[in-house]
Amino acid sequence: MQGAVHVVGAGLSGLAAAVDLVDTGRPVVVHEAAAHAGGRCRSYHDTQLGMTIDNGNHLALSGNRAALGFLDRIGGRSAVAEAPRAEYPFVDLDTGERWTLHPNPGRVPWWVADPRRRVPGSRIGDYAEILGLLVADKGTKITDVVRCEGLLYERLWRPVLLAALNIDPKDADAVLAGQVLRETFVAGGRACRPVIAEDGLSKAFVDPALRYLAERGAAVRYGRCLQRLAFNRNRVAGLAFGDDVILLGPEDKVVLAVPSRAAAALVPGLDAPQECRGIANIHFKARCPPSQPRMTGVVNGLSDWIFAYPGRVSVTVSGSDLAELGREELARRIWSEVSYVTGLYMAGMSDALPPWQVIRERRATFAATPAAATSRSGCRTEFRNLFVAGDWTDTGLPACIEGAVRSGNAASTAVIEAMR
């Protein structure tokens, strides 16, 4: 008798696991507490702006093999735009300087020898220090390995590591930072090309996955908040969704793809990071000049990254929910930076605040500290039919799209092995 697989959580990790498992021919049921799939990586129609926006800005890279493999499998690849080259424009708001970081495609980083490709004011030898992260010891902070100061740090490593880790790099785990570096700059520009879902994250990652599952007979049930797992010795015997209790058969399996705090509350003794970091995303209904790059890094500003889409601008502020600022004040301050960076102030548009929306996620990611890195669980648990997935699990990466998909793939692989 073939056992069913219950995937609890329809975020990216749960969807990735479900897509893998539905192809085994076994019954797959996805349970989602919300009224929609995608978790923190989704799009929705915002009535204040009158347009579809992403819940938050998420960036994939051309070297993210799991994320791009997932898109290829579900048929979502055509909904993302991959830049032809690894180019990252920056603006320093203190000095007004603008430059474009342009790593060469191959692994030999000759781009650091070209002043036109590297950070202005930096020297070739300055780039060697960051390589210490590749051999960092477990439990060390970035500050134990790299001087978190100076021109190159402020203009390159701080914005890059802050975006990747969603935490002040001075507090971040050096091993995680080293893995980010290993899969990006060390792999060469060929692995660093931005991949952006210009028409929304749901159109690329969520909607095609739901179609893929539906076409293969999987069920996706919304409004299903798992309140309790019933255990019988070394296995899960039941799932309690309020008054609805599902009793599991001897061959049934469960993939728990929920946030770390929820997972720790449901599973006794599960290792899961409890400290989180927030992200603020500010969206504007505005049209940038055609020459504006799709994304621009901001140095010495409140903004971290500015994304220019057709008819809208989205800004990410990493590592904080900016709770001390009111929503409109935050929108006005960010808009003043956006109008300067994009040149809209020259068209007389800097004073008029366009329609805006502020989205704050106070628990967007786990805090990528050394302590959190050691508290990440693998996909297997002490219960033989229970597996966990999520970007907070031990993927070797910080919380990101690639990590979420990898965690779902790891959980599905473990389930399939257990079925055998």
Automatic annotation (TrEMBL):
Signal peptide: none annotated. It comes from the Bacteria. It holds the Pfam family Amino_oxidase. InterPro entries: Amino_oxidase, FAD/NAD-bd_sf, SQase_HpnE, Zeta_carotene_desat/Oxidored. SUPFAM superfamilies: FAD/NAD(P)-binding domain (SSF51905). Coiled coil: none annotated. Residues 12-416 form the Amine oxidase domain. One of its GO terms (molecular function) is oxidoreductase activity. NCBIfam families: HpnE (TIGR03467). This is Amine oxidase domain-containing protein. It comes from Methylobacterium oxalidis.
